[in-house]
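Run log // design_07
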């Protein structure tokens, strides 16, 4: 990684264009750090054009935030128990019970402790760490509070886990003045309500917003202006790209492709040979192109099945067989209700209770077991890494249409 990318990850940073950037590609950045909440307002005119109230004209760049709480479980513990503040804290099961680290405070991370590491190893790296057993009910409560703040900003909130979500604020950004101002408002509101820090990335799409929030951690706010996506991504390692799992990373590195910029410049045919059909999609992401909409979860509108295993499973025949059964069950339920689904969601709970959902959207709705299994299986390919063990697996189908609604559904715009 070069000096520029290192500078982005080293400190809370706001990235913004040197000048307003309407309709122009901006390649220049200014890094202002840290002090976002104590000043740091953009000088000069706001880069965003005023939006007409009540709607978003087509052709307008989207503004998507990725909001991610910093060291969530550990921060909740430090907030609730003042004696833990300023000290290295690891949340997770006991080393005797072969527990793993569910979350580590930044003080513990300084000693090399990371999530999903065996607790015994974490305590060897950081012997002075305070181990705290997880309290998932408590984290769920705080999560509901935080998600409610997100939804006060826009109904278009797509949660990815207890502590992170995408927000499409395209229609709302005018009310705040700029994406940076909206991000500052959200950070301040979360802090006021929960006394916790959230890091925020703002960009025209999900991939770039997610990477931007990570680049600013902890307590960061990173704004990537329209047109600046590709330059922002170029110097980062490929593993920073959402969707590049350990397998794809190994294949790309073996081919000499190490940065997202190098991936963006690789010939599509060559990428196809390296990565299969996903190559083209990954190349788009590397170029900063990602049209996927923010998809709010509609609880009433999904059909699915999940299962908790008697013992944690690694990726392998047993896990894949369970996936096939869940896909079949989901297909049966869809056909019983005469529904077809456009989105397939994979839910995974790791041995350390971390729960993630991954979704994919199909061009055409389906109620076919095998189509659902393939979609969920591809999501699992991208998510499961070596050493991961899972205690729960779920398959859910969303964006449902009954057979008569399908033609109507196709006419819907992909996002707003
Ligand atoms: Mg987080």
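design_07 sequence
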């Amino acid at each position: 990684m070069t000096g520029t990318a290192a500078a982005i990850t080293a400190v809370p940073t706001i990235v913004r264009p040197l000048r307003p950037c309407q309709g122009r590609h901006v390649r220049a950045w200014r890094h202002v750090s840290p002090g976002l909440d104590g000043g740091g307002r953009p000088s000069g005119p706001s880069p965003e054009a005023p939006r007409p109230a009540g709607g978003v004209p087509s052709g307008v760049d989207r503004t998507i935030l990725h909001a991610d709480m910093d060291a969530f479980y550990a921060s909740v513990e430090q907030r609730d128990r003042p004696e833990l503040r300023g000290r290295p804290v690891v949340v997770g099961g006991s080393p005797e019970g072969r527990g793993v680290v569910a979350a580590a405070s930044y003080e513990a991370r300084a000693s090399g402790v990371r999530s999903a590491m065996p607790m015994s190893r974490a305590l060897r790296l950081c012997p002075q760490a305070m181990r705290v057993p997880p309290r998932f009910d408590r984290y769920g409560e705080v999560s509901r509070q935080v998600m409610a703040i997100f939804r006060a900003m826009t109904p278009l909130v797509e949660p990815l886990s207890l502590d992170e979500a995408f927000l499409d604020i395209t229609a709302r950004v005018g009310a705040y003045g700029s994406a940076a101002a909206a991000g500052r408002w959200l950070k301040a509101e979360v802090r006021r309500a929960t006394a916790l820090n959230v890091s925020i990335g703002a960009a025209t799409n999900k991939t770039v917003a997610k990477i931007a929030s990570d680049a600013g951690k902890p307590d960061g706010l990173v704004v990537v202006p329209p047109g600046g996506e590709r330059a922002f991504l170029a110097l980062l390692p490929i593993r920073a790209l959402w969707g590049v799992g350990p397998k794809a990373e190994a294949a790309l590195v073996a081919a000499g492709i190490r940065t997202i910029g190098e991936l963006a410049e690789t010939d599509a045919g060559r990428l196809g040979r390296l990565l299969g059909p996903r190559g083209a999609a990954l190349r788009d992401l590397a170029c900063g192109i990602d049209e996927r909409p923010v998809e709010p979860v509609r609880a009433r509108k999904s059909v699915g099945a999940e299962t908790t295993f008697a013992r944690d499973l690694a990726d392998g025949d047993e896990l894949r067989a369970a996936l096939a059964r869940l896909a079949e069950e989901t297909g049966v339920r869809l056909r019983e209700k005469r529904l077809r689904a456009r989105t397939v969601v994979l839910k995974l709970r790791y041995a350390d209770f971390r729960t993630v959902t991954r979704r994919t959207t199909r061009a055409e709705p389906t109620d076919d077991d095998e189509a659902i299994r393939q979609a969920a299986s591809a999501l699992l390919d991208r998510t499961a890494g070596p050493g991961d063990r899972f205690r729960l697996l779920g398959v859910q189908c969303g964006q449902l249409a009954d057979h008569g609604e399908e033609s109507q559904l196709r006419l819907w715009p992909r996002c707003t």
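The longest strand covers residues 389-402.
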